[in-house]
Amino acid sequence: MKKRHKKSKAGFSLTEILLVVAILVILASVFAFSVTKYLDVARGKSIEAEASRQSAIGDIQQSEIHMSALGFGSSATSQVRVVLPSSATPASSAAPA
C-alpha cells in the first residue's frame, strides 16, 4: 500500500500573495500622489507668502525714502511715538513690585 500524503493548507498560495502585493502597490501610489499634491500646494503658499513679505519690505523702504525726503530723518521708525491712554499701562511696567 502506498501512503498518501495530504497536502497541508498551511500558508498562502502564490496568487494570494501577488494579489495582496498588487493592492499594496496601488494604495502606495495613491498615497504618494496625495502627498505630492499636498506638498505642491504648501510650496505654492510659501512662495506667495514670501512674495507678500518682500512686497511689504519694499513698501516700508519706499515709505522711509519719502519720509526722509520730507525731512523726517534717515529712518521714519525713529520718529514714531506711541501714545497710550492714561488708563492703559505698558505690559512691561504692569508687573507687581
Give a quick precis of the structure.
The chain is mostly helical and 97 residues long. It has one helix at residues 14-69.
Please tell me about this protein's structure.
There is one protein chain. Helix content is 58%, strand content 0%. With 97 residues, it is mainly α. It has a domain at 32-71. The protein is rod-shaped. The N and C termini lie far apart (105 Å).
SSE pattern, N- to C-terminal:
H
Number of helices: 1
What's the overall geometry? rod-shaped
- What fraction of the residues are assigned to beta strands by DSSP? under 5%
| Rounded average pLDDT | 79
Seen as an oligomer or otherwise, the chain set is: single chain
Instruction: Tell me the structural class.
Output: mainly alpha
Number of DSSP E strands? 0
Euclidean distance between termini CA atoms = 105 Å
Largest sheet descriptor: none
Poorly predicted sequence stretches spanning 5 or more consecutive residues: none
Question: What is the share of helical residues?
Answer: 55-70%
Backbone CA Rg: 35 Å
